Amino acid sequence: MYIYDAIDQGIVDERVAQFRDQTQRFLAGELAEDDYRPLRLQNGLYVQRFAPMLRVAIPYGLLASRQMRALAEIARRWDRGYGHFSTRQNIQFNWPKLEDVPEILAHLAKVQMHAIQTSGNCIRNTTTDHFAGVAADEIVDPLVWCELIRQWSTLHPEFAYLPRKFKIAVSGATQDRAAIQVHDIGLQVLKNAQGEIGFKVLVGGGLGRTPVIGVVINEFLPWQHLLTYLEAILRVYNRYGRRDNKYKARIKILVRELKPAVFAEQVSAEWAHLRDGPATLTAQEVERVTARFTRPQYQHLEALPVQYTQALAREPAFGRWARRNVHPHKVAGYAAVTLSLKKTGVPPGDVTAAQMDAIADLADRYSFGELRVSHEQNLILADVRHSELHQLWQEAVALELATPNVGLLTNIIACPGGDFCSLANAKSIPVAEAIARRFDDLDYQFDIGELDLNISGCMNSCGHHHVGHIGILGVDKHGAEFYQISIGGDQGVQAALGKVIGPSVSQDEVPEIIEKIIHTYLALRDSEVERFIDLVRRIGTDPFKETVYGTAHQKRQTRRESVATA
Amino acid sequence: MALLIKNAKRAENLWQLLSIENTGETLVPVPSLPSGDVLVSLPLWQAARAALIARPSGRLGVCLAPADDPAQIAEDFEVFSLIAVEFPQFTDGRGYSIGRLLRERYGWRGELRAMGDVQRDQLYYLAQCGFDAFLLRTTTTQDEDRALQVALTAAADFSEAYQNSVARPQPLFRRRPLNPTAAA
């Protein structure tokens, strides 16, 4: 964890006071609804279908146990006893009262948390790899860079009223677990031949209505220039991004309309003025931020101690969990563990206050008091000893946090959807649940193998359906809720956008369609080694269109014709 | 009514706004220009530059729209007594970049005024970006004394900022004490 100093704390405290004053003026009728809206959004406060929704920032997904307890307390005191972890490593509360929000923010500030810029047309929470700092495939630990970006982007006076929201993701590993190719800015931390740290800079990626894979505009930006370069990108976007149409206002549209090469030139021209200016990072500042991070004090441990391997051999259920939910660690004898928030019947990402407290205890006892939120809406204990995995597993089972489905079909990513969100065209949670029930048999899931299934209730794509191996999008069809199914999306290094394979279907039909897709995959894969996404890459989507929609599509076509001739 | 705040005090707005739309497209002859202080839009400045400079009395200011490039007036600073930036809606943030460019890149030292949909809750960031005068949007029903009183508190919203800006030429990390005390 980055530990605030008095200045960091002061900024967050003053933000609470500012928002308290704004809310009081709004409630007193001195601040009009339209004038208050952007202010409350930049403090994470939406007005939703049933109640306001408060989105709390979890910078780059890192959370201390005492912070988790504070979230539990908020869920109990001001909400209905639970919270929802989002795909952007944040947590959302669905039932706070607007007038209570300043008090909630004050409560958060006590544990060095806030809701600054979790919504609105500004620079949002920076996200990263949920295995940052511990991943076995890591090149550079991105956490310090994320914190430097957090500080730079927090209350940036020039960029509070951008054309549209702006999201930055950072990855420091070989595998991309931060989806940097589908962010407004994606940063890949690298080392050059001399061992110096720098960033590959991608811009203009994004999901939403117009999904786009980002383009590289700088192959290696030396670290000293990180903030001046970000400032140059943001300034070009702030000045020239479209403001006439909110659906064309993201940076991806500007990059596309200018052409990436021209956009890159504009950034270079702007950067020429900012380069080597006061925002140029110093080694001293990087050291200062590094020193303010608490780091686990690892011990020299034996990898795969005998009690661990014996338990694996003895208990198949433990073995299954270890295969899916235990992940490699760069330090021998340690592993990262996913606590699954994807138990069938529970909306993906939802956690009760009691679970939050229990999870905080697990973090204290097994993982140096720290947790991570993954963009797949699970929680991670990043530093667990191999020798304690079995005991942790037993506790996680008791807490219903041990569903061994990471990477499998029922590890569904889903937005809150039409049950909560006023933007949604369709519900997400009941669809996720229906699919999870259909595939509840774990052996079957293990047989199907790795598969990401993502659901968004509308084209704002909070459920990242474009990059699901199977993506489900809620659409509105003459006032009724329908679902469009796509396949072939991927979120990793080989990021790809899924393709729609047929006409949209009703909620009841979705599990059946997914089942048919799975049958097609199982019938056509060359072996168990060929994953679903590998098969789609190999054979394309056409065979799926045939087998999944062939008859249904035919039937509908025939019906339409018979109606036409009637 | 609009309320002008300058150097943290209420001030009287002496400037008359002129744009191409209210003077006509053609080159404006000197006699038809009003006397007194005039604030002209960038298109009008570009169309009637000589005539505006030739006016016998009154100060001259230019008002930039969000899409205007401040580079276009950077050579003319000596003839201006005021540069204003228009915010058609407060959510249109282009003017913040214009403010910083005018101050930091082109070196404008005179009055920099934010006008249009400018409200109390934008003043802090505007000041960070170099604005020192604010023509506040107020409604007829609003009590101006109260509006002034509320607006004047905006400067104290934050006592620190991470970024370098016009108000703080060095970012926090270049000013931070070496051994700051940890937060409680």
Outline the structure in words.
Chain A has helices at residues 6-27, 33-41, 65-78, 101-109, 143-153, 226-240, 251-258, 260-274, 283-291, 306-314, 316-325, 353-366, 389-398, 429-438, 442-448, 510-524, 532-539, 542-565; strands spanning 45-47, 52-56, 62-64, 82-85, 91-93, 127-128, 168-171, 185-191, 197-203, 215-222, 326-327, 334-339, 350-352, 370-373, 379-385, 413-414, 453-456, 470-477, 480-487, 499-500, 505-506. With 566 residues, chain A is an alpha+beta fold. Chain A has four domains: 6-109, Sulfite Reductase Hemoprotein, domain 2; 127-291, Sulfite Reductase Hemoprotein, domain 1 (2-Layer Sandwich), CATH 3.30.413.10; 306-398, Sulfite Reductase Hemoprotein, domain 2; 423-565, Sulfite Reductase Hemoprotein, domain 1, CATH 3.30.413. In chain A, strands 16, 17, 18, 19, 20 and 21 form a six-stranded mixed sheet that branches. A five-stranded antiparallel sheet of chain A has the order 1-2-5-4-13. In chain A, a hairpin with a 2-residue loop joins strand 18 and strand 19 (480-487). In chain A, helix 14 packs across helix 16. The longest helix of chain A has 24 residues, at 542-565. Chain A is globular. The model of chain A has no long low-confidence stretch (mean pLDDT 94). Chain B is α/β, with parallel strands linked by helices. Chain B has one domain (2-158): Alpha-Beta Barrel (TIM Barrel), CATH 3.20.20.70. Chain B contains six helices and eight strands. Chain B has helices at residues 20-23, 42-54, 94-105, 123-128, 144-152, 172-175, and strands at residues 2-6, 9-11, 16-18, 38-41, 60-64, 82-87, 111-116, 133-137. In chain B, strand 4 (38-41), helix 2 (42-54) and strand 5 (60-64) form a beta-alpha-beta unit. The longest helix of chain B has 13 residues, at 42-54. The A-B interface holds A 3-11, 14-15, 18, 21-22, 25, 30-31, 35, 38-39, 112, 121, 151-152, 154-162, 227, 235, 238-239, 243, 273, 277-279, 281-282, 284-285, 288 and B 90-94, 96-97, 100, 105, 119, 121, 124-126, 128-129, 146, 150, 153, 157-165, 169-174, 176, 180-184.
